[in-house]
Amino acid sequence: MGWEPHVTVAVVVERDGRFLVVEESAEQGRIVYNQPAGHVEQGETLEQAAVREALEETGWDVRLTGFIGLYVYTPPFNRELT
């Protein structure tokens, strides 16, 4: 089996100078704030995945108006990504 990319989308939502964030529990019980994000599911476009993740995580039905960028993450050490 060859290498398979893990594709993640994130949504930046700004309204009236404020940004939509999701509160999440992190390691050791810490609370962190992130933008709505998640993995692209089979058969989805990036746009469909972004809108779905925003709705699932926040209840907001967003409309995409721009594209910020595409980035490749390389882990700092050689490990199997799951």
Short description:
The protein has one helix at 46-58; strands at residues 8-10, 14-15, 18-19, 22-25, 31-34, 37-39.
Describe this structure in words.
The protein is an alpha+beta fold. A hairpin with a 2-residue loop joins strand 2 and strand 3. It has one helix at residues 46-58; strands spanning 8-10, 14-15, 18-19, 22-25, 31-34, 37-39. The mean pLDDT is 91. The longest helix has 13 residues, at 46-58. The protein contains one helix and six strands, in the order ββββββα. It is globular. Strands 1-6 form a two-stranded antiparallel ribbon.
Q: Structural class, from secondary structure content?
A: alpha+beta
Strand order of the largest sheet: 1-6
Proportion of beta-strand residues: 15-25%
Largest sheet: 2 strands, antiparallel
Q: What string gives the helices and strands in order?
A: EEEEEEH
Low-pLDDT stretches are: none
End-to-end CA span: 14 Å
Q: Approximately how much helix is present in the residues? A: 10-25%
Number of strands: 6
Helix count, per DSSP? 1
Mean pLDDT reading: 91
**Based on CA inertia axes, which overall geometry fits?**
globular
